[in-house]
User: Fold these one by one.
Assistant:
Number 1:
Amino acid sequence: MPELIVVANRLPVEPVYVDGDPDQEITGWRLAPGGLVSALESVFRTEEAIWVGAGSELLDVDHGNLHLETVSVDARDMHDYYEGFSNSAIWPLYHDAVVTPVYHRHQFRAYERVNKAFASRVAEIAQPKATVWVHDYQLQLVPSMLREMRPDLSIGFFLHIPFPPSALFAQLPWRRQILEGLLGADLIGFHTHDDARQFVYSCERSLGLAAYEGTMRVNNRRVGVGAFPIGIDAEGFSATAATPHVLERARQLRAEMGSPTTVLLGVDRLDYTKGIDIRLKAFAEVLQDERLDAATTVFVQVAVPSRENISQYQQIRDDIEMLVGRFNGSLATFGATPIHYLRRVLEREELIALYLATDIMLVTPLRDGMNLVAKEYVACRNDDTGALVLSEFTGAAQELAQAWLVNPYDTSGVSEAIVAAAQAPDDERQRRMTAMRSTVFATTAQTWAREFLTALRTGIASAHASVEDDRDQASIPLEQLASSQHLLVCVDYDGTISNIVTDPDAARPVPEAVEALEMLRDVPNTSVAVVSGRALDNLRTVSAMPDGIHLVGSHGAEVDVPLELDPSQRRLLDQCTAAASELVAQVPGAFIEAKPGSIAIHVRQCEPKAGANLIRHIVMGPGRYPGVLGRHGKEVIELSVAHAQKADAVRALRQRFDASTVLFVGDDLTDESVFADLSGQDVGIKVGSGESAALWRVESPQDVALLLQRLAQERSTFAV
Ligand code: ADQ
């Protein structure tokens, strides 16, 4: 297994000082709080890795299987990069601009410098061909910077926060740089398909790039884009929640709250995206309207201070504390304070005891990449009790559909959901919780990391991860082809597996397409053929196809062996050639390609009008000789005396191999005869634009190569 390097803004641990005083000596290290660390921590209990994060250069610590490496950043740059560009521009922009993002050029320059410092550090320490996994919005330029320094590395990027709609992203003055920075990765992961799609749309809009089945082509490289929803260490949370002292602590907590009938809970970083103020208002409404009893209902809000140097964070903290004071002032009675507000970090066991003491968990962000708190609460409810009120605008809502889902902008809706959850019959709550628990235990932090790293290392994302463009027609049924009994793969040559070039003899196949065809050739019960309008001899020379790949030339007249004309066909061909030569001689750029059973008159190098004119004269002249078949192609007309069509050749091959299914890929008019002839489980794919009888379509020979590679990989798997 190649070396694994995780790169994140922060290190996963923080120092513990004597007496908690940062001026005193460091006595040890503990896990730093936050979503990214809590997800990855459980992964590195089993896998060794290097973790690169910002910090003092003096640091040289190992933490279990993790070796820590630091990037030292100058204090001023750190401020402009972290509080500045990362958290005052990107964070609000990516969270639907719930507060107005601010764009300062000097902050972006600091962001570039710090990203460069991270990339350089990784380039310095990474072993050849190491796997590098870059995390989150603070380091979006690292993938391309690192690729430039170390093209041998395999680079993955994961965004822990949402990706904004393309119309919103477009306001970012450095949108190109950010997209190009990310596209330096081999695989870019998001929490949801929606996020992945938004990213693809922004690449289309700002860079003119297109994605096909979760892959983008960037400077001849393939970049995978997919959805990898993060999970938690569900077993770990559940096991701690089952220990007697944690259960006892949960009972104690409830007693300390005055043994209320209903306990509600919110646990968040103190952030304006988390919707803490909304749930406070909704809760207060419920008590004011006496839908729940103020004397027997308690709402606990635990909030960890976060990014306190940024003014909006000071503002949201003030707002929340004002609301808590105001509502408690009007709703409290002696011995019953409805809102308990704790601004601090809780130890893991205390947090879990609190989850257990809670009847209704409130998770109401205005926007959240995933939200791990919702999953932690569910994982802790070993007896299937409890209820979750969850914002639709979290990644978690896409998985935990059995929660009481709410629009956090609608205070009445949130308060109604609180009442509904409080009054729901036990069996309904249990049914919902059981379903959510099975999701949380099925997709954990470990499965998330494994899926992402496997996709990065193999280049194949699971069907579940890959983004399908929902505006596209149905995706190509690759699995159906991969699992067919005997598959015959036929591809046209020019414009299908080789790019169109001016000199026909210079048309070489896309190397990845050849590799894929070779791989398919080696899979049992699979036959492969290149079916071209070119003369067989010429096709053999130009394509240089490996042995075992069948070659069909002259539109199907030559299947693996050269064509032999009878004397009358020979005479007719000579007459056509003589007549066409006279016409061609008058038009600069036109030329004749002689083939065993035909001649092709090419006009692609002619002045367009003159070319079109020449074709008309050919059609009216030798094209009308009895026994001659005229066939139009792209800027070419072909006159043949041996009347084969590509469809005849494909039919013959199908019979010869007793193929159950045919895949045919082509771009030219002459390929239409095959598309029209396909049936049943066969698949026809047209390359490029224009009318076609093919049901599926891709854009270019590079797409064809990609498709063939996928097919080869899938069919090899089926064959095992
Ligand atoms: P965060 O915005 O930090 O994460 P979240 O996913 O909820 O949000 O993770 C917070 C973590 O911190 C949880 O593990 C929680 O238990 C812990 N935590 C919160 N408050 C705490 C407290 N007072 N005491 C102790 N622990 C506390 C970012 C994105 C999310 C995404 C994660 C992971 O914003 O959308 O889910 O990364 O990708």
Note: Residues 33-36, 38-39, 160-161, 230, 267-269, 302, 304, 345-346, 351, 368-373, 376 surround adenosine-5'-diphosphate-glucose (CB under 6 Å).
Number 2:
Amino acid sequence: MDRMSVTEIFNGIPLPGHLHTPESLQYAQDFQFKEGDILIVTYPKSGTTWMQEILTLIYSQGDTEIAMTVPNWERAPWLEHTYFKDTLKEGEGPRILTTHLPSNVLAPALQNSKAKVIYLARNPKDVAVSFYYFHKMAKFLPDFNTFSEFLDRFLEGKVHYGSWFDHVKGWYRQRNNLDFLYITYEDLKKDLRRSIKKVCRFLGCPMYSKEVDKVEHHCRFPEMSQNMMVNYMLIPNEILDHDQSKFMRKGIVGDWRQHMTPEQSDAFDKIFQEKMSGCNLQFLWSLD
Ligand code: PPS
């Protein structure tokens, strides 16, 4: 399989060579956004696929046909991925784009455009757990023997895709320079309907209550985990080993409690306080 063990370093950040090349990264950096574009921005495992599905259904007024027939990476492609250039379609309706890249790479181009940016963040403790399981299944990411080993690297910001802290802080700093919506995975979990309506308002895309019903129903975890167009079961085991973990794994808030010792959690909190000092972002560590 292509470039499975290659790591691309871009702006000091390691990225899987299976999905990124110097050319694809340059293309992303030079990309010309235009009015009407919607860019979903996330650090990995923050609910990217969930937001891709929500936006797809908002723009289809709750009609599930596209969501059930076109894979998420085709309908909301990642700017930086190798296939992006060939996937981007200039059809009707807005272009829904996705990225995990840091703000310093994309903010200059975004500031000169009228694109809308949705930044979706997730409690980093749950991100770390979800990312650890993703490393188990993704053959294009390094192996870690234990969660503890992975957590150390995550807190040092030395995993693929770089530091969670830098990612969220960098993008949050851009909030007044861009047409920007900040929303969290925990918001979606707590009140999906309210969150869908919030996204609709941001997009200037009004919906009837019956249409919101359909979006809400289709974007629930049980429904999405059965949808082959978003659960990544289309990707063969040589790339994503579905026997190791599922992409739609648990879909809950607070799973970190099942994985971190009290000492690990305390150490995490300490680093969180240090790195996030001066940044007024709040995270829900659990929903109870
Ligand atoms: S990726 O690889 O960066 O695109 O992954 P991403 O989509 O950002 O994150 C995957 C996690 O999101 C969970 N997910 C959901 N949770 C609740 N409800 C819905 N509908 C939903 N869809 C995706 C998915 O299960 C992964 O989280 P974990 O904690 O591993 O279950």
Note: Residues 42, 44-50, 126, 130, 133, 219, 221, 224, 248-251, 255 surround PPS (CB under 6 Å).
